[in-house]
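ok trying again, last paste got cut off:
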Amino acid sequence: MVQLPKTNPETHRAFLEGNFVVNKTEKKFSCMAIDQAHEQNNACVKADGGAVGLTENPGALRRWMVAGPEMARLVNEFENVTECFVNTNASNKLHHEQTLSFQESFRNDIVSLYDVIDDLGNPFLETSKDLLVLDSKNIVDISVVKTVNTIESLGQEQFEKYTKERLVDRTTSVFDTIKRNKLPLFQTPPPAKKTSTTDHKLMALKSNCSLFSRLYIACQSRDGNLDDFFRHENHAFPPSLSQNGTIRLGTKADLLSKCLERLTPPTDVKPVVSFCYS
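nice, full thing came through this time. structure:
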């Protein structure tokens, strides 16, 4: 392509004139690739129902191949005629972003961004090394900062490894699966800190100590009854039935075994068992 002006000037001139794309309308910046235009033409011929099941019936396939393109041409001509009555030539040549509403929305976004920079300061004058959000000043997690700093070098390293293993050394098949990079991004929530059971118990004891201290002082200053105070449950969940909000599990036989043992007196008499054969 670099030597195309010298090797084939006519092809280079055609490329400069835009003859490598298809323009279906008079709108600017609406050209598409040739293969994409072919796919759109195929979609017009297939219509909404598609070509499902036609390959199994040779007669229906031949009728569809003959009449399908002609029907698509008639529908396309009808749509073009109706659009001429509805739309003007000036609107047909405009891009979909060349409208008053879109330009007004774009202007409002620019003004909003300017207001944020005016209120919170110029982000390019920030001397801190932390990576933060422009409008909220929230500092992102350190793992996200590491991703931003190393993502380019990581991608280059993986590209060189892929080229060497699959194209140069040919030790790995081209069809082998490439491992996904699970890198923390801006929308990735920070990892939750894992706390052990001992930490949960210690936090619960500290919370209970603080709660009972406040309630005990309030009970003394208001002449309350301490027996009534300790009679009621002061937890969000009863510790006898749940642990850290999770209900305790057990076996009913273990709960009733001691009660049944007390009601049943011990005895050394062995029951007589007889076998009956039929």
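cool. The longest helix spans residues 58-86. Residues 4-92 form one domain.
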